[in-house]
Design a protein that fits this description.
mainly beta; 150 residues; 1 helix
């Protein structure tokens, strides 16, 4: 298996060591890519499945992350370890014209008001691996345990 921590992964590890608690791996994704991993990778080549990490633990110089894939049948050749960062980006009001009246001396516009809030979610790939094909069979769960060794 060829495995590489990405540049984003080093950034996330440094932030975690620096005491930023929300910066932890939260998902493992699987895909069908075959290109050798590099530090510049930001996503899988061809993602086909993603699962939330259900448990994490440390032992010695390693951190472990476990995700379970429960549905579907597929063959995969790459995997990625992701964290998920969310920001409540912005909120405001959007005014949408609902009618206009054409008067010879005045044009007036009535507006309906829409209030909105935006949340931005960014999935940052910490590490990527490629390997020989593995098949997940329908009706069977597949546990992936990812080890990050420092």
């Amino acid at each position: 298996m060829k495995y590489k921590i990405t540049s984003m992964g080093y950034d996330i590890i440094a932030r975690r060591v620096g005491g930023i608690p929300q910066v932890i791996p939260q998902e493992i994704a699987l895909g069908t890519g075959t290109t050798e991993p590099t530090e510049d990778d930001v996503k899988l080549e061809n993602e086909i499945a993603r699962a939330t990490i259900s448990s994490r633990w440390a032992d010695g110089y390693s951190a472990f992350f476990k995700a379970t894939f429960t549905s579907g049948s597929f063959t995969f050749t790459e995997a990625g370890l992701f964290n998920l960062e969310s920001w409540r980006g912005f909120s405001g009001q959007l005014f949408i014209p609902n009618r206009t009246e054409d008067l010879s001396s005045i044009i007036s516009v009535n507006y309906d008001k829409v209030t909105f809030t935006s949340t931005l979610e960014i999935h940052r790939m910490m590490a990527r691996a490629v390997f020989d094909p593995i098949t997940k069979e329908a009706g069977k769960n597949l546990d992936i345990i990812w080890e990050v060794r420092l």
